[in-house]
Each structure stands twice: as C-alpha cells, then as structure tokens.
Amino acid sequence: MRRLLICLILLLTACGTARPGSLVDKDELIVAIRPDVPLISFRGQDGAYAGFNIDVAGYLVSRLGKRIRWLEIKADDQLTVLTDGRADLVFAHMSVTPERKKVIDFAGPYHVDFQDIAVRPADKGAIRDVRDLEGRKICWVRGTNIAQRIIDERRVKAIAVPAPDYNVCLEMIEDGRIDAISTNSQILAGLLTKPGVDLHLVGAAFNEQRTSIGLRKGDVDGCEELNRAITRMYQDGTARRLLDKWFGESGIDLSVVSVPQFEGCS
Amino acid sequence: MTMTVPPPVRRGESVSRRVRTLAGLSLLALAVLLGAILAGAASTGASLRTIGHVAGPQVLATASLYRQMSEMDALVAETLLLGREYGPQRQTDLAGYDRLRLETSETLLNAYRLALDDPVQQRTVGSLIEGLGRYERLAAQARLLDIRSRHTAGPPPDDVVEAYQQATDLMRRELLPRAYNLTLETGTIVRRAHAAERSTTSTARVAVGVAGLLALACLLGLQVYLTGRFRRIFAPALVVATVLAGAALIGGTALLDRQGQALAEAKERGFDSVLTLTRARAISKSMHGDQSRYLLDRFRRDTYEHTFLDQSQTIAAVDSTSLPDYQTKLHPDFQGLLGSLTSQDRQRLFPVYQRFQQADARMRTMPAEAAIKFWDGELTRTYESYDKVVEQLVRQHETGFERAIGSGDRALEALWRSVPAGLAVGALLVLAGVWPRLREYR
User: Model-level pTM greater than 0.90?
Assistant: First the structure.
C-alpha cells in the first residue's frame, strides 16, 4: 500500500514538473531595454527609466500581475540576452524576422511603425526619398536590420557605416562621416529631441515596422498572455494615451491607433 | 500446556467484522474506481465539447470574416484599377461586393454570438461592426470620385488613390488585424483546454489504475479470507465481482485512452492544421490584395511590396534579403506557417505556391499597363489555383477533425453505457457473496 502511494505521488509530481518554465510562473520578470533611446527608453533626470517602451512594459507586466527588474542592453545583445536566459522579455523596438524567429519567440507586435530618414538640413532638398540614399553613407547600429532593409530589400545601393548605438550615429552625421540615419520613425523622433541635434525628418514613411516583444523560444503561455494584455491596452485607451504622451508632438501620424495583427504564438 | 480458545461469540463477532470491513473496503474501492473513470471521462468530454462544438466553429467563423473583409477591399481596389472600358467586369465586381457585404454581416452576427461569454472578444466584434460601416462610407467616396474621373484602365487619378488609401488603411490597419487576432484567440482557448485536459486525464488514469488495483486486492483478500475461514473453495459471486472489477479497470483505461487519443488527433491533426491553413489562407488573400494595391498606388508601391514580402515570409519562410531574392530562393524545405504542416500537405502546396510567387515576380518587372493585364489574367488564376489547394486541404483536415471528434464522442458513450452498470453489478455481487456468510453469525 505504501509503495503504491509513493508511486502515485511520484507520478503526480512528474506530471506537475513536465512543463517547461514560462514567464507566467514567475513573480518578477527581467525586462531588457536599451537605455539610450530618447522618448522610447532612456534615463530621465531623476535617474529613473522613462519612455514609451518603459510605460508599455510597465502596463503589460502589471496586467500579468508581476513585478519588473530592468536590465540594460545594447542592440546586438537583444537575442543573446534571451537565449542565455539573462532576461525574460526584450522591449527593444525589435521587428519580427524569420532569422530571429529561429532562436526566439515574439509576442505582439504592440505597435506598427514605419521607417523614416533623418538628414542634415543642408541635404533637405537632395534626399527626399529612400531611393535618394543611393551611393550615400547611412548609419547601421549593429544588431538591427534597418540598413539591410534599405540596401538588400529596397535594392538601394547605400553604404552602411557600423555604429554601436544611435548616439554614435548622431556624432557621425554631425561631423559628416555619414549622410543619413534611417530607422523607425519613433526612434528618429526621439533622436531629434536631443539637445543640440539639428536634423531634418524626410517623412518618407516606407517599410512597415512591426515592433514586437522578444521572449524565450517555446514560451507559448507567456506569449498568449502578453497578446491578451496588448489587446486590453488598446481597448481600454492606454495605447492611445501613451502614444499621445510620447509622440503627440513629434509629427508622427497618430491618426490610426489600433491593435496590430499579432504574429501568433506557436 | 493450556490452549486458549476464544469464546465463540467474540470470535464470531470479529470474523463478521472483518468480513464486513473487507466487503466495505471492496465496495469503497469500486466506488472510487467508478468515480475516477467518470471524472476522467467528464474532463475529456468537456474538452471534446470545447474543441469540437465551440472553438472549431468559432475559428471558421472568424477566419471567414477575415477573408470576406479582405476580399471586399481587394474588390474595391480592382474596380478602381479597371477603367471605364471594363464596364461589365466592374458591374460583376460590384455585385460580388454587395454579396460579400451581406455575407460579412452574417458572419459578424455569428462571431458575436460565439463570443458571448468573453467581453474582450465581444468588444472586438462590436468594433468590427462599427468599423465596417466607416469602411463602406470611405469606399463609396473613392468609387464616386473614380466614376467621375472616367479614366481608362490603369492607376486612377491621385484624388481617387488618396480616398482609397483612407479606406484601405482602415481595413488593413484596423479591421483585418482584429479579425485575425480573434482567430488566434480561439486557438489559445483550444490549446489551453487541451493542455488542462491532458493533465486531468493523466491524473485520472493514475487514479483509475490505483483504485482498480485496490478493488482487486480487496476482493481477492475477501475471497482468500472467506476460503480460509469458511473452508470453501470459492464464492462464485465474488469471483464474478472480481472479474467485473478487472474488466472495468481494463475497459475504463482503454476507453479513456481511446478518448484521449481521439482528442489528441482532433487537436493536432485536425484543429491545428485547420487553424494553420485558414490563417495562411487569410494572409494569402491579403497578399493578393497587396498586388493590386501595388499597381494602384504609386505613392506606396514600396510599402505594399514590403508587406507582400513580410506576409510571404510569414507563410513560407526562406532565408532571403529581398522579394526577388525570396522568389528565386523559394524551396520545398521552407519554414513559417505552412512549414509546420505534414510533408504530404507541403508537397501539395509547394508547386502552386511557387507558381503564384513566380507570376508575382513577372508582374513586378512589367510596365504598368501590361502588368495590370497580367494581374487581371494569369496572376489571378495562379492565385486562385493556389487558394483552391489550400481550401481543399482545409476541408480534408476538417473531415479528419470531425471523424476524430465523432470517435471520441462514441468512446464516451460506450463508457457511460458499460462501466457504471458493470461496477454496480459487481457491487451487488460483493453483497451477494458475503451476505450468506454474515447470516451465519446472526
């Protein structure tokens, strides 16, 4: 009889532990962010993090009933931080690509943005469109796929100049080492708010950028919960409020604020 | 040497108490066995109902919603693109549009009814009903401007394109994503019901095994005790009761297994494939729309080409850097949504999908007027033959799904019919077996 009981307990506990770890089982989530992107995720004057991504992450994670521990990363760390298990979520304005999907999963997107171009005011007349970047030098922040989207996908022969982050891009456009910075219009809007930055936004909204949340491969439960929370964020008006708060004065077109088509969680 | 012989009365009392305890334990174990089998059956039954009778129809309703709305927008683009020389075809398109509008209203009502117990989904359906009204207004505006412009086949004047941009933005950026997410949410509900059922069934299976073995042990113990104490070789009623308990154990486990298998088959081979294929079909529909929008709207050609590539990669992912690169590198070993299907399904899909992509590649290298003609003829035909194969596969998996649900339902019925009756007879036989022995002590 006792043996039988032991067998039973063993069997039951085996059932309980068979599921791989999901972020829904945790009380505190490690959320990876880039600390150098104005309006999106940056350190405010009081030293605390602020920005659109910070507010979105805060809303979604509290909808899941959990606490946040922030982790600062560079753009080229946004995948490894998940594959090494150092973070549970990555809010780094990542878009979904088949290559990335091989190693991590995506919840969302929580926002659909377009790609735009920023140039020196002097080049305002010369660069009006993505095709005008032919033969010109553009900034490529390592780990992002934005430059590739211009050169390979749009077949515009621009020259990608690598940089570790957008601050370096700003220095390079200032001293003439590059001619243009092209990325999500939200990120560009943020760069333009930096003191001393005098750049012109071309307004050439091309390529849709589906801004998504990175999470560990196979965490279907976590992905589904995040998608439900994103739906609520749009239904209860939080998304509209946060977009107005951070980008209301940036000139980005906010006439359509609507829940994006999700990538799906399997 | 003294022999202590217990007084006959006390000895009789203790024997009858033991017989009663053993018989009681046997009955209890039989009851627990019955309870475990029924609990397992109830849990798989609930899961069968969720998948087979609630979520299945809901997936189909929301997926057809996406397809119908996507087709409405594609038809609007088509009527704008076809010039006045295509008069009769425009009339056909308009009639088709009206039919779709009617179908969409019906599907929306159906989706609303199926979402009744979920306020979030209900709100989504409500917003779709409201949004479709707005879309109608914008599409009508674009069409009116288009008729006034009296242009020939090819891209219409800019003011028409601008009016259409507003309509298609509403459709593609607001309405279609919501319909798509509704389909995904149904997938989530089914996946969770299935996962919960699997853990309950495996617990129930263990409980059935333990209770069944316990019942057999008690019945055998009772038999052995009676044989030893009353010098009988066996009590026939108890032997039959033991056999019935053994049969209930084996039969119950087998039926639970079969039901579990039916459910797994319905979920994995039926429902999951139907969900994947309907998602792919919906996305393909909007890819076909993006082709006409690419021709229609010179301001946003790049964006429409980009979304076409993005959607191609969602359906069948291949390592590539641009749309032409994708179209040349496309191979049968693709990943993405359709990559998760069985190799048999992929083999059927690949050639038609590849032809569709090859035709698209040709269209993009043609001058505007030739491209429109090509799009109206060969390109649309390759799309339709690809779409037809996807539709056939959906139907095929739907049949498999219904068959599996039916087999699960039958296993459940068999279980309800046989197991409780068998165990009740077993319990009566236990009583019949011990009753004469207990009477000896009256």
Answer: no
